[in-house]
Every structure is written in structure tokens, then in C-alpha cells.
Amino acid sequence: MHTNVQRINAWSSPRNISTALMYAFRQRADTTVVDEPLYAHFLRHGQTEVVHPGASEILGSQLNEGAEVVRQVLMGPYATPVAFFKQMTHHLVAMDESFLQHMDNIMLIRDPRAIIASYSKVIPNPGIDDIGVEQQYHLFQKLQAMGSLRAVVDARQLLLDPGGVLRQLCERLGLAFDKGMLQWPPGPRPEDGVWASYWYSRVHTSTGFQAYEERTYELPPKLEALAKRCAPYYHTLFEVALKAGAA
User: Is the overall model pTM greater than 0.70, yes or no?
Assistant: First the structure.
């Protein structure tokens, strides 16, 4: 076991390409990946009223208390020198956040309209606490103040230039870029959370980052209002995000 592990939190909004990013880091020989370790804590302590598919199974599969997740998982021992934690920003509730300053943190953002259009296919009528964009903005400010934010990654920019953006990201993290991060075999992974059957069907057919396709999203009035409320937070974060073609 390594005693000096580099610990990376990737704080994502839901319905982003966070699982693909986790799979990319899994291809590195120096990295262990962990899928959403705070999901059960969020289900136990979050304020959401939406019904999450497989909630009881999730609660039975993970530690339910954030403090124990931090102690045993985020700060626990690993057989590799790097540990990558795929995290949902809205899972960071009702807990001491001081552990963040002892980790490298990145943020994965996406246009709120795209998030909401995708998320609402599984969970109808999400609220702002379920989308996580406002939380990302506030977490962004906290991480900057702590000096522990390493990069902001935008999903569109990553899909436009996977190699270039990943190369920039690795540089920000002090890691050597590994071109193996660009491809992976299709199918589920042992690290997938028990919720994978509800959310990961598309990424399980992938063998790499999918080419970006420009789309428009028609939202019902309530969700359109939610998208407009989230837009300023997203645009602020996008201004400092890694850009395609900049490597």
C-alpha cells in the first residue's frame, strides 16, 4: 500500500460524462478509481424529494455517513500512487468539508440545458438541488479560496478534443499524460456503483469519448425556468475551463 497517495476528486454535475472520465483514469496503471462514494450519504442526509432508482440497494452497498466515507475511502490506503474519486457535487451535503484542502480537486461542468434534458428522462421534475450546478459554483469558490482547485473541465470541450483537454488536465494535476486514457473496452467495470444499471447503459457501449454532436433541447416551462436559473453559474465556470485546441 502507498503511504503518500495523490487523491483526486472530480466534482461533476449529474448526466455529464463523469463515468467516461472515470473510465479514462481507470486505464492508467498508477490509478485506482472509486465511483460516487458519497451517494448513500446523500440519500441519507440530502434534502431532495425525488425518488432515486435503486435507493435501498445503494444505501446497502456503501457507508452512509460522510465522515466515515472520508476516513475509510477518501483518505484510506490504496495500492496505487493515485486515487481518483468520481463525485457528484450535490452529494456534498451535511458534512465537514475540510478534507477538500488535503486533496486535488477538479470540476466537470456541462451546459445545464443538456443536463436537465437528460436527467429528467430518469427522474422527472428535478429541482436545482438535484442538478448540482449552483452547488458547483459555490464549491468552485470554496476550492479556489483553499487553493485546492486544479482545473475546470467542460464536457463539450473535452468531447471536442479528448487528447488535448486530458493532456492539459494531467499537467494541472502533475501527472504524465497516458494516451491509453483515450480508449477502454466496452461493458461494465468492477468499480461501477450498484446504480450502473439505471444510468450507465450508454457508456457501457462506448470504447472512448464520443465525438461531440451539437444538439438543441426543448424543455417544458418548469424545466426551462430551471435551466435559466442555472445558466449564470455555468457560464462563470466555463470562462476558466480548459479549452479544446489549447494543448
Answer: yes
Give the torsion through C-alpha atoms of 182, 186, 189, 193, to 10 deg. Answer: 100
Whole-angstrom Cα distance, residue 49 to residue 29? 40
Which residue ranges in the chain fall short of pLDDT 50?
none
| SS3 state at 85 | strand
Residue that is written with C-alpha cell 428535478 in the block = 126
What would the pLDDT profile of 180-218 be if each residue is shown by its tens digit? 999 999 999 999 999 999 989 999 999 999 999 898 899
Please calculate the CA angle 217-221-223 and round it to the nearest 5 degrees.
Answer: 60
| Nearest of 30, 119, 38 to residue 82 by alpha carbon | 30
Q: Which domains does the chain carry?
A: 6-238 (3.40.50.300)
- Ramachandran area for residue 36 (φ above 0: left; ψ -120 to 50: alpha; else beta): left
Beta bridge partners of 88: 12
Q: What share of the chain is helix, strand, coil (3-state, %, to 5)?
A: 45, 15, 40
